[in-house]
Automatic annotation (TrEMBL):
InterPro entries: Aminotransferase_I/II_large, AspAT/PAT-like, NHTrfase_class1_PyrdxlP-BS, PyrdxlP-dep_Trfase, PyrdxlP-dep_Trfase_major, PyrdxlP-dep_Trfase_small. It comes from Paracoccus laeviglucosivorans. GO terms for biological process: amino acid metabolic process. This is Aminotransferase. Belongs to the class-I pyridoxal-phosphate-dependent aminotransferase family.
Amino acid sequence: MSFLSQTLARVKPSPTMAITGLARELAATGKDIISLSAGEPDFDTPEHIREAAKAAIDAGHTRYTAVDGIPQLKAAICDKFRNENGLDYTPAQITVGTGGKQILYNALMATLNPGDEVIIPAPYWVSYPDMVVLAGGTPVIVEAAMQNGYRITPDQLEAAITPKTKWLILNSPSNPTGAGYGREHMQALTDVLLRHPQVWVLTDDIYEHLVFDDFQFVTPAQVQPELKNRTLTMNGVSKAYAMTGWRIGYGAGPAELVKAMGTLQSQSTSNPCSISQYAALAALQGPQDYIAESRSVFQRRRDLVVRGLNECPGIVCPVPEGAFYVYPSIRDLIGKTSAGGALITNDEAFATALLNETGVAVVFGAAFGLSPHFRISYATSDQVLADACARIRRFCEGLR
């Protein structure tokens, strides 16, 4: 009898973490590697946030806090939702965790029973299905095709809902595609959800502030207030304020759910890092000009990468509405052979050959549930991105 849990056998390690680790190992051997697999801003955390963390240490804020967040941070989160999203919450409806991932995980663990279904649009963030499985639920994958802007349609959502459906997970703008649900698209989905009162919405808004051109961010409970009492809205400071390593995420939802999530957290990690909480407080209450500045940089990089990839033979790269990813199609490259002799049977074979022959590390589309594609994170310098696109173009030109 195996010592390890049978549940663990159904869960895969994160492909993005694995590829990032492999790229680091290859670079450590002296190989010329460009890693475009990690999803985190390459900027430093703003200075006033760093200073707030130092001040928290000096003030002695180094002890346990309330399990799901200090009162000051919860109040600031309430203000954020009220001012930016038009949503009114009380501190009892706010939970703070060790990153957005813990908020999602706690919600699923606190609500799913064996047989419960969770609808997940694909391409999806790699952790969604595995978190559902760990919580005892069943992921129901709905493909959001490139021709539909990587968005699921109302008809697809309607068809996926069954009496066993408990949650719909929505991520807008999306990792890995950067696709966003504008008000019209979001309204169409919420109209479907109104007809199915057993279905709750778990919305991942972590890329809320990284939107481009004239795209206007909306969140489900904002578009349809009748859904607020069955929506958990997750967000955090990691992407908007370049605070990935600080590990602070937060969620807003019905008090009963938030209380249950707090009970679960009390028996797992307890409170998030006290110092990080004070840093997050400074992020939410301090100057916000950093967001516009970083957004401008990311938009420039997006345009550079989209243009560069669309110049590669056989690659089609849509223009994303937000985040810092592109998710191009390589359908026309399947079946070809690289200059190094690798047969491109699928997107994983493409990514492997690309890394081996050019040193460019990308994440293959199967990891996100939709092939044949790959994901690039453009959260790195213009020079590195231009070099990577040139290498990918040479690789594609060498395919026969």
